[in-house]
Amino acid sequence: MSIREDIAAARQRDPAARSALEVWLTYPGLHAVWAHRVARRLWRLRLLLLARVVSQLARFFTGVEIHPGATIGRRLFIDHGMGVVIGETAVVGDDVMMYHGVTLGGVTSEPEKRHPTIGDHVVLGAGSTVLGPITIGAHSVVGAGAVVVRDAPERSLLVGVPAHPRPQRRDYGPEFSI
After folding, report:
1. pTM recorded for the entire structure
2. Which residues contact 53 (CB under 8 A, 6 or more apart)?
């Protein structure tokens, strides 16, 4: 997982990104992902308190909260970032794009898998919420403001409260991959 790869993904997905330097200096979603990588290493070394401190510092500076226990794939791009919450047992695939206000939350406090699994090449719209130990299939799109509480197959378009899969009219795969 490289910083260069993350910057390239951001430049590909955000038409407002004018240079690699601008992305590196000013994109809080990327800063949050980079801090998560540090916190995740500490978490795996069983330095749990230190990992949580790193994640909370990242939250303070970026507005993005990623629990150090969460598993994040390559080239996650969080656009605008503010208000994003990713829970402890969440799994996020490769080449995922999230907009501000996304929540990957749990529905129980039991010590088990309680957060969602997001497949590769998924787009999570602004303010969308995915709750519980469910799976969103690869190449799916979760619409802005949708609340997803059930599994969704690959290439789903999820809209509504609660969200229901709709057929996609467009393939979101190629422009969201490197």
Report:
1. 0.89
2. none
